[in-house]
């Protein structure tokens, strides 16, 4: 499917896209563009992989989505809001609706696993009594029940990854982004993590995963957005639900 | 080890409770605040000394009496003192005894024995009312009315230079204080920036998790203001102790009359922790906001 067809198809649906890029380009400073004329739309509850070689622009694309960067041209609509017109004071509220699993995890080393997972809930000003049980349950779900008090530096790579995932999903985000979430784990752990994302997706979360793992992409059968030299293409037809 | 009970969990602070860098930063702030407080004490004391010098000079005059033929110098000086005592603006006028007048001249002579052959003029020391001092003209007129040949010296010829020197001392002291205070503020700001930049990872995670700029900035403001206040308090306490020592060593007038430290001056150091905390809070806020700005 061509890029234009993808965009047109999304706009034709009755449901408002959760995310829409309209001819978005991005560059860092005066460097060459890392993303060029990117257009796509994601419907709520969809599941997409973003593939591409290193330097293709996957991380930059995710940065634009989780509001850590601004496009040099083009328009981004997130949760129905045109980001170019959204007041800066409102951006934190939009960020709270996005869960991000960073490639380098970005866990706070001085906080316990439990405290790390609770970060988004504390920022959203929820009372500890309202979420203590949820955090404990989630840590059990990702297999870290016995490590709730552990500090991140004492955890293995896979455990850190699962902890980062738990933090990303604990506030039940509308949109979950993951940058190479299976990059540091073995094949078995990669599948386990993937199943975790599928489970979240079934609960209604829109999931976007940037990955190098072609095997995982092929096995999943989920729609793919492919980046090459900063340009986006759609090698497989997107589906509304995985 | 007891098993973790989520029901008893309490949120940990987003910023680490303590850090090696915090101790170093507090120490630097303490040293700079100590120096700033010392210069402030020095500035106030030198200002007081300068005011004292000029007040002393402005409050007195010296009259040189030349006895007329047939009149003894003692008699002429006594008449002059009496005439001056009745002038408005004069609180006291007294003839200086011959020995004291000669003692004033003696240091300027190679051989003090020549004093006996010299016509040493008699002096009258005059204390003036500080609020409404008598003018030179009024004193001269009163002396002339009594038929006295006398010259009134109100110190104006060298008072100007003394005043200029006192003013220079005063401004130099305040200038040094301002420089050190500015250097202290700059060092606090830079140290705060460095400390905050070292915690960029925390800023990033909180920012991307949806924390508002104000929430993040406040967190760092409180941390660094508390640290600067502690450092400022230590520095101020050190300077106050040093000032108190100077005051005690010097007895009634402080260490020396040249630098008269008063007990009340020590209260100046109280402002230091507050000022340090304010500067650190401002620097932390600006740095945090700038850091967050770099993230998007």
Fold and architecture overview:
The complex is a heterodimer of chains A (242) and B (296). Chain A has 242 residues and is an alpha/beta fold. Helix content of chain A is 35%, strand content 23%. In chain A, the strands form 2 sheets. A 6-stranded mixed beta sheet of chain A has the order 6-7-8-3-9-10, with helices on both faces. In chain A, strand 4 and strand 5 (81-82) form a beta hairpin. Chain A has helices at 3-12, 58-65, 91-95, 113-123, 128-141, 157-169, 187-202, 214-220; strands spanning 19-27, 33-42, 47-51, 73-78, 81-82, 98-101, 175-179, 206-211, 224-228, 231-233. In chain A, helix 4 packs across helix 5 (128-141) and helix 4 (113-123) runs parallel beside helix 6. Chain A starts with a helix and ends in a 9-residue tail after the last strand. Chain A contains 8 helices and 10 strands. Chain A is globular, with a radius of gyration of 18 Å. Chain B is of the alpha+beta class and 296 residues long. Chain B has 2 domains: 15-54 and 161-295, no CATH class; 60-132, no CATH class. Chain B has a 4-stranded antiparallel beta sheet. Chain B starts with 19 loop residues before the first helix and ends with a helix. In chain B, 35% of the residues are buried. At the A-B interface, helix 3, helix 4 and helix 5 of A face helix 6 of B.
């Amino acid at each position: 499917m061509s890029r234009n067809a993808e965009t047109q198809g999304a706009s034709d649906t009755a449901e408002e896209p959760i995310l829409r890029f309209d001819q978005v380009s991005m560059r860092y400073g005066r460097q060459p563009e890392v993303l060029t004329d990117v257009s796509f739309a994601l419907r709520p509850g969809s599941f997409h992989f973003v593939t591409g070689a290193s330097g293709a622009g996957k991380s930059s694309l995710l940065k634009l989505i989780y509001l850590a960067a601004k496009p040099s041209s083009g328009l981004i609509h997130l949760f129905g809001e045109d980001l170019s017109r959204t007041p800066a004071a409102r951006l934190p509220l939009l960020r709270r609706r996005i869960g991000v699993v960073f490639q380098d995890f970005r866990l706070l080393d001085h906080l316990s696993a439990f405290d790390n997972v609770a970060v988004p809930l504390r920022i959203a000003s929820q009372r500890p009594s309202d979420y203590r049980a949820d955090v404990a349950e989630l840590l059990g779900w990702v297999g870290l029940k016995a490590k709730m008090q552990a500090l991140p530096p004492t955890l293995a790579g896979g455990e850190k990854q699962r902890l980062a995932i738990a933090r990303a999903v604990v506030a039940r985000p509308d949109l979950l982004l993951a940058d190479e979430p299976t990059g540091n784990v073995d094949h078995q752990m990669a599948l386990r993590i993937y199943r975790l994302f599928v489970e979240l997706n079934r609960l209604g979360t829109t999931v976007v995963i940037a990955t190098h793992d072609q095997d995982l992409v092929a096995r999943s059968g989920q729609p793919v957005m492919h980046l090459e030299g900063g340009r986006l293409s759609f090698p497989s037809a997107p589906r509304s639900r995985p | 080890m007891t098993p973790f009970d989520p029901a008893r969990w309490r949120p940990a602070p987003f910023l680490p409770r303590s850090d090696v860098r915090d101790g170093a930063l507090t120490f630097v702030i303490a040293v700079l605040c100590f120096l700033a407080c010392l210069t402030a004490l020095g500035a106030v004391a030198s200002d007081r000394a300068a005011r004292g010098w000029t007040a002393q000079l402005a409050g007195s005059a010296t009259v040189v009496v030349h006895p007329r033929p047939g009149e003894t110098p003692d008699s002429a000086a006594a008449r002059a003192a009496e005439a001056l005592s009745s002038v408005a603006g004069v609180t006291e006028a007294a003839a200086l005894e011959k020995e004291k007048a000669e003692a004033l001249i003696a240091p300027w002579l190679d051989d003090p024995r020549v004093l006996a052959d010299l016509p040493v003029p008699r002096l009258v020391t005059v204390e003036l009312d500080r609020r409404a001092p008598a003018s030179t003209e009024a004193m001269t007129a009163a002396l002339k009315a009594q038929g006295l040949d006398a010259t009134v010296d109100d110190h104006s010829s060298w008072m100007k230079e003394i005043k200029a020197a006192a003013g220079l001392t005063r401004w130099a002291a305040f200038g040094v204080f301002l420089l050190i205070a500015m250097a202290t503020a700059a060092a606090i700001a830079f140290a705060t920036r460095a400390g905050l930049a070292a915690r960029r990872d925390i800023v990033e995670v909180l920012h991307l998790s949806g924390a508002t700029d104000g929430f993040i900035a406040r967190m760092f403001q409180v941390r660094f203001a508390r640290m600067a206040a502690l450092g400022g308090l230590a520095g101020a306490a050190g300077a106050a102790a040093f000032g108190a020592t100077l005051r005690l060593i010097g007895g009634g007038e402080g260490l020396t009359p040249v630098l008269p430290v008063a007990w009340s001056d020590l209260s100046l150091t109280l402002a230091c922790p507050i000022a340090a905390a304010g500067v650190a809070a401002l620097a932390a806020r600006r740095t945090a906001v700038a850091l967050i700005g770099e993230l998007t």
